[in-house]
Model the fold of this input.
Amino acid sequence: MPALSIDSLSKAYGSVQALRDMSFDVNAGEIFGFVGSNGAGKSTTMRIVLGVLATDAGEVRWDGRPLDLHVRRRIGYMPEERGLYPRMKVGEHLVYLGRLHGLDRAAARTAMEHWTQVLGIEARRDDEVLKLSLGNQQRVQLAAALVHGPEILVLDEPFSGLDPVAVDVMSQVLRDQARAGVPVMFSSHQLELVERLCDRVGIVRAGSMVAIGGIDELRQTPQRRWFVDGAPPDAWLGHVPAARLVSSDAVSSGAAGSVVEVADPSLTTVDQELLAAALAAGPVREFARVRPSLTELYRGVVSSDVSTTETPSASTSTTSTSATNEVSA
Amino acid sequence: MSAPTDGQLGTAAAVRLVAGREISTRLRTKAFIWTTALFVAAVVLGGVLLHAIGGQDDDGVPVAFTPSATAAIPAFEATATGLGATVQTSELDPAAGEQALTDGDVDVLVTSVDPMLSVTVDSAVPQQLQPVLAAFAQQLALASAVTDLGGDPADVAEQVATAAPEVTALDPEPARDGGQIVAGYLAGILLFISLMTAGQLVAQGVVEEKSSRVVELLLATLRPAQLMAGKVLGIGVVGLIQVGLVVGSGAATASVLGLLDSSALDLGTTALWALAWFVVGFATYALVLGALGALVSRQEDVGSVIGPVTTLMIIPYVIGVSILPWDPTNALATWLSYVPFCAPMLMPIRIALGAATTAEALLALAISLAIIPALVWLAGRIYAGAVLHSGGRMKIRDALRGT
Done:
């Protein structure tokens, strides 16, 4: 299965080291979410993939071979800074871009008609780009990335500035593309969206990949937490010495309860011990494993000091406001 | 980069696509349509106006003769022609003649030629007719005296008319040809304006792609050189269409109205050379201005970054239109007409004035063409190094370094 390999990229802008040894793969048919704070190196990485920026070291490969202009023409790209000719008509613009990517006139026209239809801007084909709202310009920009039937999609912040309906349309398009075998790589600050959409996520900080994996994989932290809606923890927590109280006034799905944590991952039956202890103290209305959300993972990763551990450790630095925790049954 | 293997876009096709977009979008802009229409209208109207003014002169000063004086009309016209004046003669009876004088329809009414010339005017004899009337009066007096002496006045008149001094000029002044001077002016003005406009369009077009950020999308599928070549080619074609329409309508107006019937101007050659020099001048300036445009990211900065070059463009233009029409062999202008960047504005004026041989024009063309490969290389490097740089103005040195 072909993969887009980003291998040990480094890039410096003057004295600023934008990328250091950035490496990861995006597999065919996979949606890869690229998250990190502003200036962490996401856009720089994408621009190097597209060849609009030269790397200082490392290389980008597709299917094992270094990317050249001819492979790059088969990438669909949405730059961070949106770019279209403001005075060109939407339809003509998309046909032009399709032809630049090697389609003939008829094929480019068909593709333009298809994508403006799918993205709900078919009524605006004869309008100049600048006459469209920002949200619709964004849809045109996505159509521009898709019009040539790309084999790879690289989208920098495709969801920023979209209304909820447009987000759904865009999400569906990305899923369809991935299902068709296209590796989809996109960056976003909307972490709930990334969590919902992506097969894998990479978190970057200061030019390096600091956490990468499937969402569930990333959420596997050594510390395990449970939400308990039952008797007050003082009454039963003492029976499980490995557990400690994180919060006694957490809220989950509208129910109030406590969050307890066990730091030792080797205690495989500790959840049963906790449940038994809680039941012994009174009725238990809800008992659920609490996994950190991507937002918490992200906060943990980007706020931890550069010199400390590079593994995701959400719970160590996040404040224990489990009200924001996602509860999975 | 590997060779195209799967029907992908080659360089020629890419350049053609980029140029095609430039042409089709620019030909439809209001700016292009209006400036072209205005140029063409100005040239055609100017020709018509010139024809109308010239036509009035051709008709000559209206001079009427009463029936008793009509016999002298051929002799009067001959005298006027001999003195370089044009007259329009007619026959009117005395009453109608005086009425015509009052109405301003005729300037002079000749009432009698025998024994001496008598004329009636409204207020005064028109200036250009004074020598004619004086000479004609003397001629009549002479004829009368010859008759009195028994000679043949016609014989004497013929000998007098053909008598002319033989002049030897030590430093003859070349004949000034009005048609050539006008064509020289027009060639200079047209090339200056069209090169300036088209060159600025290239700079603005480069910055338009930078400021709208579309350049990043384009450079993901095009090499910088392909994008720049397509842009220069496209705008060049648009400019050539505009110049061609103006030159063509000017030449057509001139030949239809017969404006150049008495001129030595070779209209076809002058027009073709003007187009050729537009192409060469455009290539030269577009490369420089396009590369300079790439150094900035905002339209507001275009003027200042290309300012030094557009200011330098004014020098050959001013020399061309202020010196050459009056002094076609001026040494400074002649030398500068071989220098690239100056030649596209000076050589067409010399050609229009008939002051340059074809060999000289071809030599200047060869020199200007010879520097274009160097300009392509330099401009390509500056453009590629600067076009993705955003923010403030970039230094040429940094662009060449490719940072």
